[in-house]
Amino acid sequence: MAKTTSMFVRIAMVLSFLTLLPGLSHAQSGGATEKEIKEMVQKQFERMYQKGVENLSDRIVVSGGVKPFAVVTDTGDKVKAIRIKQAEEMPADMALEVLRRSLIALVKKGKIGATAIFYTADNPNKESNAEKVLVVEMEHIFGPTLAQLVPFTIKDGKASFGDQVVVEMEKQIFNINVDEEAAE
What we know:
Layout: H1 2-16, H2 34-63, E1 69-74, E2 79-82, H3 92-108, E3 112-122, E4 132-140, E5 145-155, E6 158-161, E7 165-168
Helix pairs in contact: 1-2
């Protein structure tokens, strides 16, 4: 549990990264300042991350990974986990694509304003001792988009996590025109 808690501390460091992200000024509406918007985005990312970590803690130890799932903030500022039952039976890469398409459909319908997609993958760093990484892709309708990769190892029924890497990423969910009709 201590390692899980330290992940929560790590996310605070990650989210401080948001203060470096440019381009939030266009998101100002209704008199909100850029600082207020950044704070709101950061709080939503933190809440989604915490819910996601709670949702995967047991699964990651039992199976050594998790099928892709999402945590979203809806238009009522409620945070909820989204799992697609059929995706649990699919190969992970196919399940990830189905999940992304489902989230895009929800965005087109105006149902969500922020997403965090959680999944595990092989560690791209071959020099690392950890074979797997937990990937969390976070996107917000107001612009911030980042991916966090955390290497992990399962040993004796416990997960231990390494140092995170945070990178900017291309928008995958909010790269559509929200006013379009949901075609899918």
